[in-house]
Amino acid sequence: MEFKHVPGMDDVLPADVGRWQALEREFRTTVESYGYAEVRTPVIESTHLFVRSMGETTDVVEKEMYSFSRSDEELTVRPEGTAGAVRAYVEHHVAAREPVSRWYYLGPMFRAERPQRGRLRQFHQAGCELFGDAGPTADAEMIDMLVGMLGRLGVAGVTVHLNSLGSGDTRARYRDALTAYLTPLADRLSETSRRRLAHNPLRVLDSKEEADRALVHGAPKLHDLFDDADRAHWTGLCAALDALGTPYVVDPTLVRGLDYYTRTLFEIRSTAGDLGAQNTLLGGGRYDGMVRSLGGPDAPGIGFAMGLERILLATPDSAPPRAPFAFVATLGERARHAGLVLSRSLRAAGARVELDARGTSLKSQLRRADSLGAALCLVLGDGEVDRRVVQVKDLAAHSQEELTLDAAPLAIAERLAARGTPQ
Ligand code: HAM
Fold first, then answer.
1. Under 8 Å CB-to-CB from 81, ≥6 apart: which residues?
2. Can you tell me the distance from the alpha carbon of 217 to that of 364, in angstroms, rounded to the nearest whole number?
3. Does residue 125's CB lie within 6 angstroms of at least one atom of ligand 1?
4. Would you give the distance in Å from CA 197 to the centre of its chain?
5. Model-level pTM greater than 0.90?
6. Is the CB of 129 within 6 Å of ligand 1?
7. Nearest CA to ligand 1 atom 33
8. d(CA 252, CA 202)
9. How far, in Å, from the CA of 19 to the mean position of ligand 1?
10. Facing residues of 329 across strands?
11. Ligand 1 centroid vs 323 CA: distance in angstroms?
12. With helix as H, strand as E and coil as C, how does the chain read?
């Protein structure tokens, strides 16, 4: 029997993992410089949490959750990170201790989708949630932070799509207005949109079907239903982005697929690389009613999540260089033991070291050091062990010198450090 990975749940082999780590490092460095601290919540939560927060009629909850029951518990492998973060924020009474909390997370999420390029069943998100600040300046700063980070990551052709849904009340009034407008036109809508009209009419707005788009064109505009506070938030957000000089496109059809959003919505898309249809790198928005709806105080929130697989598709496919290291080649049993001890001391001195203890010929060990890209190869045979020395070959300079075993760890760690990691 042949075992294969589950389609849409990919392995990341060591040769590729460097790109992931570099991306994760850039994300952590960026968000920590804005005051975010990491939170780790479980991968499994109660199914009810997702139904309650994301909404019963959203695509994710209706069709894409990996849910199961075990001993009377209804559980779901998380399809996203916001619900768990808000649950933890409420459960641990964080709002009572701090007026503003900035949290970030990184990790696998699971959705039962039909796999395609940039759309997986196990994918990875890096996201932030900011609790306790209802103002538009926070929204603008988050969006600008993301544009800056994508620039440093080398993602080209980036556009910020921006919209506002207004408050929960405005959204509810709009839902009624849209339903009243679309219902008489229902038989001209696509089948998907007809279904959405019944449960989640806002989703009709972001239909890609030509026929739907023509009808949606004449639909009432959400921004016309804004109350004064909605309008102030929206103009405040645009003004703050203008002050930062961060370009954006106002996209009134942007609704996003989750029920918890209020006011600000944004997505960042890219024309770069191999993204194809899955060109949304990240999405986010405000969810001012969610903390309360999960049993917490009246704390506002805003956040985003970006798909790491999609960012990797949109960035240059080059593995980041690794720090220089030493390869220890040994000949004979005694030399192998001396090599073990020397390698340990080298690592304690801060060097990266790989020991070859397979017992092959010196020639084959040197070839291996070369193919691994080692900076130095340290050779130990019985003669060296007797004299308590080691031969140090510089593989780039093709030079060789002898160091005592006592002096070697520090001297070699210093030499490797002096080379630095190639940029
Ligand atoms: P979302 O739009 O469902 O939002 O997902 C955010 C990002 O995750 C997407 O833009 C995409 O890059 C990535 N993503 C989603 N599904 C897949 C998939 N099947 N395969 C690969 N990548 C995928 C959320 O999840 C919200 N929790 C974001 C948020 C945080 N809103 C407020 N706070």
1. 41, 105, 107, 109, 125, 127, 129, 305
2. 70
3. yes
4. 32
5. yes
6. yes
7. 303
8. 11
9. 20
10. 356, 379
11. 33
12. CCCCCCCCCCCCCHHHHHHHHHHHHHHHHHHHHCCCEECCCCCEEEHHHHHHHHCCCCHHHHHHCEEEEECCEEEEECCCCHHHHHHHHHHCCHHHHCCCEEEEEEEEEECCCCCECCECCEEEEEEEEEECCCCHHHHHHHHHHHHHHHHHHCCCCEEEEEEECCCHHHHHHHHHHHHHHHHHHHHHCCHHHHHHHHHCHHHHHHCCCHHHHHHHHCCCCHHHHCCHHHHHHHHHHHHHHHHHCCCCEECCCCCCCCCCCEEEEEEEEECCCCCCCCCEEEEEEECCCHHHHCCCCCCCEEEEEEEHHHHHHCCCCCCCCCCCCEEEEECCHHHHHHHHHHHHHHHHCCCCEEEECCCCCHHHHHHHHHHHCCCEEEEECHHHHHHCEEEEEECCCCEEEEEECCCHHHHHHHHHHHHCCCC
User: Under a CB-based contact definition with an 8 Å cutoff, are residues 169 and 178 in contact?
Assistant: no
Q: Are 249 and 161 in contact (CB under 8 A)?
A: yes
120 lines ligand 1 (CB under 6 A): yes
Which candidate, 60, 18, 30, places its Cα nearest to that of 127? 30
Among the atoms of ligand 1, which is closest to the Cα of residue 282? 10
CB 39 within 8 A of CB 28: no
Q: Which of 153, 207, 174, 193 is nearest to 315 (CA)?
A: 153
Give the separation between CA 394 and CA 389, rounded to whole angstroms: 16
Ligand 1 atom with the smallest distance to the CA of 80 is 25
Model confidence pLDDT, tens digit, residues 149-194? 999 999 989 999 999 999 989 999 999 999 999 999 999 999 889 9
Task: Write out pLDDT tens, residues 244-302.
Answer: 999 999 998 898 888 899 999 999 999 886 777 889 999 999 999 999 999 999 999 99
**How far apart (Å, rounded) are the C-alpha atoms in residues 111 and 14?**
25
Distance 102 CA to ligand 1 centre (A): 19
